[in-house]
Recover the amino acids of this structure.
């Protein structure tokens, strides 16, 4: 749980300013705007990106995130690494313990934790790819066992039928 019950983090990270948000939608929009601003500064204006960004911000994000808090439901806040992939993990040679590093911690919807694992599949994890689609990045090595272990402890948020769509959104 976040120390103040809000989304975000108290220090600047690469995808968000050091500020808190009262809602998950607000926090996620701020992160997307930060990424879009970096894209604009790097590559300049792009008409197609402007149209797609508008649809993302005005249609898709509200459509997928508002139902999470409909009818009095609450989003489960979770402190996440922020950049978890195989390259940011290792084993301490002295004691054999797993380690993770290069974090960009922030408090987000708990399903963002799953997105890190979703993005870290190998393309050879065909069972997971069949279930989740083939758009996931191939650079990582977490697989179906991670999903199964995670979901044995943490339920998918309601509406469950939009879980996959949310993980796709969170991977942007």
């Amino acid at each position: 749980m976040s120390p103040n019950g809000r989304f975000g983090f108290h220090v600047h990270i690469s995808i968000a300013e050091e500020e808190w948000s009262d809602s998950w939608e607000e926090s996620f929009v701020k992160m997307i705007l930060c990424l879009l601003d970096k894209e604009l500064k790097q590559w300049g204006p792009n008409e197609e990106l402007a149209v797609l960004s508008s649809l993302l911000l005005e249609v898709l994000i509200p459509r997928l995130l508002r139902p999470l808090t409909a009818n009095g439901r609450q989003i489960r806040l979770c402190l996440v690494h922020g950049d978890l992939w195989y390259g940011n993990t290792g084993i301490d040679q002295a004691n054999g313990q797993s380690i993770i590093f290069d974090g960009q911690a922030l408090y987000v919807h708990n399903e963002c934790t799953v997105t890190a694992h979703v993005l870290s599949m190998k393309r050879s994890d065909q069972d997971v790819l069949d279930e989740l689609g083939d758009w996931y990045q191939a650079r990582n090595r977490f697989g179906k066992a991670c999903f199964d272990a995670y979901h044995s402890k943490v339920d998918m948020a309601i509406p469950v039928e939009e879980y996959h769509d949310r993980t796709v959104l969170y991977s942007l």
Summary: Confidence is low (pLDDT under 50) at residues 116-139.
